[in-house]
Amino acid sequence: MTNTLSADLPVLPFSRPTIDEETIAEVGNVLRSGWITSGPKVKQFEAELSNYFGGRPVRCFNSGTCTMEIALRIAGIGPGDEAITTPNTWVASSNVILEVGATPVFADIDPVTRNLDLDKLEAAITPRTKALIPVYISGLPLDMDRLYAIANKYKLRVVEDAAQALGSHWQGKRIGSFGDFVSFSFQANKNLTTAEGGCLVLNNEEEATLAEKYRLQGITRSGMDGIDCDVLGGKYNMTDIMATIGLGQINKIDAITAHREMLAQHYFDCFGPEFEAKSGAQLPMRAFGLTNWHLFQLVLPESVERASFMRQMMDEHKIFLGYHYRAVHLFTLYRALGFTDGMFPIAERVGKQNVTLPMFNAMTKQDVERAVEAVKSVLYK
């Protein structure tokens, strides 16, 4: 690996969206058309996503958060019910449980996959449990066969937080092409972006019709002027501007995933077999064929302060990192519900020590080499 460290190098962010000139031109056409809110582009995007997911109904929204809330509402989850999720996630995964008036329950994570430990998930099920919200960190799915065996055993609905998992697979099947409710995010740092936005994959047209009501004030229209409102909905619709950005990428998602797999393999090659033993850091699971490599994360050794490590990477090497995520149950909102330190020790350790290295569609092998060299330079001091 060549010495790439130089004060003259540009900033290397941990993520950067890629929007090609053809898509930018199409957005301009939408703006000139006068139809900039939900319209034909949203319908086209939904149709292409449905095709991608094997013909399942798909509805698009203005975020990947409201998709999970709406799935819970469609499933009838509310006050008195419990839903189990992971503490190692963006807080949206548990906030949506609170939004529908249900009680969030957490289970600790597996130290290798950093996803929900299914043994601990099953142990957390009570008579009040009505739903499971697994989260696919970095795009890596759980053992889907066992997940759904547990759900079927206890007659639970599953709302898959697949926000990071577009392009991921389980046993050769695309995540989203099977299962119960499956929620994806198209936020700016995702493999496919619409700037903000998301979609929900549903089981049938009845659920899709109800999802449409929930995303736009509960309204149903008929004929020239027929209108009614029979459920309490919100304002969650995707715009044609956002859908046009997504349409510029949906047919490229397999190529995007392949490129990210190449980058991930190069990360492993550059770190080498001695890195974990020498540094005390933990690399991600080598889950080729499963994950879309949305993120490439390290868990730093306990002796390294994360903020100091991130600062050195930025100040000395001009490389910006993220972290995904702090343990949700330790936020003030959740401490007020009775959650405390020590309840989920693996998630707490990972939440305190994880860092996300640069990984985005326009990255090159040289960028990977630069990031790895910088990581080693800081950790091996």
Describe the structure.
The chain is of the alpha/beta class and 381 residues long. The protein has helices at residues 21-33, 40-52, 66-74, 92-99, 118-123, 144-154, 205-215, 240-247, 253-271, 275-279, 306-317, 332-335, 345-353, 365-379; strands spanning 58-61, 82-85, 103-106, 129-133, 157-161, 169-170, 173-174, 181-185, 198-201, 219-222, 226-229, 296-299, 354-357. The chain folds into 2 domains: 21-252, 3-Layer(aba) Sandwich (Aspartate Aminotransferase, domain 2), CATH 3.40.640; 253-379, Aspartate Aminotransferase, domain 1, CATH 3.90.1150.10. It contains 14 helices and 13 strands. Helix 2 packs parallel to helix 8 (240-247). The protein is globular, with a radius of gyration of 21 Å. Residues 1-5 have low confidence and may be disordered.
